[in-house]
Amino acid sequence: MTNLQLNKEGKLKHFLTIEGLSKEILTEILDTAESFASMSEQKVKKVPLLRGKTIVNLFFENSTRTRTTFELAATRLSADVLSMNIATSATSKGESLLDTIHNLEAMHVDMFVVRHAISGAGHFIAQHTAPHISVINAGDGQHAHPTQAMLDMYTIRQHKQDFSQLKVAIIGDILHSRVARSQIQALNTLGAKEIRVIAPKTLLPSHVETLGVQAFNSIDEGLVDVDVIIMLRLQKERMTSALLPSEREYFKCFGLTENRLKLAKKDAIVMHPGPINRGVEIESSIADGPQSVILQQVSNGIAVRMAIMSLTLQNNTETL
Amino acid sequence: MTDKNIEIPALLTKLEIQLKALISKRKLKNPLMIGIHSGGVWVAEQLHQRLNIQEPLALMDISFYRDDFSQLHLHPQVKPSQLPAHMEGRDIILIDDVFYTGRTIRAALNEIFDYGRPNQVIFGVLIERDGRQIPLQPDCAGCTITLPVGQRIKLTGPNPLGIHIQSFSTEKTVA
């Protein structure tokens, strides 16, 4: 089976999903990101690797963190960045997605970073765009958010090194979470010992175990002895029916509190892809506490996105 | 295959003498010595001591500045450059192990100028070989040698420093 994401030599050309990528490729991304991370501590935070390349951010859904870290990553690689404001663009005048893409192609761009509410939008663009253009998925519907998963893996590796010993708990709205799907795939590929998902039954996909996880409906049971706790945001914008009685009840049953945190290993780290809802999924004091690595995740997002952008553009040897 | 009768201590001494003369001729003030990762750093460590330079040795990894990054793979473990914050107006001694095509020194100069405008830069290498591709060259060299295309010189180290001449199959230039 050919993988759309890989070039003829089997190297990453697009980055659309973790699914189908080898442990070697994921590790190469993490190693490359490590090199870029050290760069952000330098006085001059810019290298000329992607000079002359044009990167277009196509965000059909709102985002602050992801879009700004992609912009910063591209700028630090000396690429030219165009962030399209879709709300005021031709799409809102009825132009189709492919027409928008072909028009941008005619402007000789080199990369699309795409966020879209429809699952598979990144794949669709990668299939139809000119071969010299690389596509990065910055979140598509409920399908995947692979760059977020990789920055989470980077953050875990920073603190825990060896994946094969790790017990990881992902807590919250698994059903609507593209982040959780990509995290689960990445953790399995990198060989994590145990992956637990903790959520009320209404927020777990049916047959979730087939993803290679253990499901828990009680946070007090699921948190015991874990090394990494990943909290997810309640995606109210994607909830079409009454899946939860109330936010207050959700916090009571599934919120991460100081007392519950004690169930995990003493040196467990607490992660959250943001934006966090204080008092809904996580107690404020934990988000700001010593075990929280939430802001490190944000910093790491820049280095990881720099790595993915430079690797994909470097491996895309097709010419105009 | 090794050495070709290249004696490293003798090369270091020759380079040291030339640098000393140039430092005095060009009147370098409180110079900053920078070694280019990795072989250049090992050579620079020796020279830094021999020339009794006060300012701590600075290190530079030019991987991100190379012009052939699309042909070579990004080296997964690029070391951060350790350069002082103020390069503006400084006198700089740049050191590498081998001078070949000139591309490394171009990348190094670009990185230095991203930090500020130095007053002057002098450039010394342990070994200069033929095969220059751009109009840049070292000010001082421990020795100058000619090698067939397809062979390259590799410095091993840091303790002890050794020189190996290797054959490589592709025609890519790497030094």
Task: Tell me what the structure shows.
Chain A is of the alpha/beta class. Chain A has two domains: 23-145 and 299-315, Rossmann fold; 146-296, Rossmann fold. Chain A is 36% helix and 14% strand. Chain A is built from eleven helices and nine strands. Chain A has helices at 23-39, 65-76, 97-105, 121-128, 146-160, 178-189, 219-222, 247-254, 258-261, 284-287, 294-315, and strands at 54-59, 80-85, 111-116, 134-140, 167-171, 194-198, 214-216, 228-231, 269-271. In chain A, the strands form two sheets. Chain A has a five-stranded parallel beta sheet with strand order 7-6-5-8-9. Chain A has a four-stranded parallel beta sheet with strand order 2-1-3-4, with helices on both faces. In chain A, α2 (65-76) packs across α11, α5 packs across α6 (178-189) and α5 (146-160) crosses α11 (294-315). Chain B has 175 residues and is an alpha/beta fold. Chain B has a single domain, classed as Rossmann fold. In chain B, the strands form two sheets. Chain B has a five-stranded parallel beta sheet with strand order 2-1-3-4-5, sandwiched between helices. Chain B has a two-stranded antiparallel sheet with strand order 6-7. Classes of the chains: A alpha/beta (320), B alpha/beta (175).
Give me the side-by-side strand order of the main sheet of chain B.
Answer: 2-1-3-4-5
Classify the helix fraction of chain A into a percent range.
25-40%
Query: What class, by secondary structure content of chain B?
Result: alpha/beta
Total count of strands of chain A = 9
Strand order of the largest sheet of chain A: 7-6-5-8-9
Tell me, what is the CATH class of the largest domain in chain A? Alpha Beta
Shape of chain B: globular
Helix fraction bin of chain B: 10-25%
Rg from Cα of chain A: 19 Å
Note the run of SSEs of chain A as H and E: HEHEHEHEHEHEEHEHHEHH
Gross morphology of chain A: globular
CATH top level of chain B is Alpha Beta
Q: Report the β-strand fraction of chain B as a percent range.
A: 25-35%
CATH topology of chain B: Rossmann fold
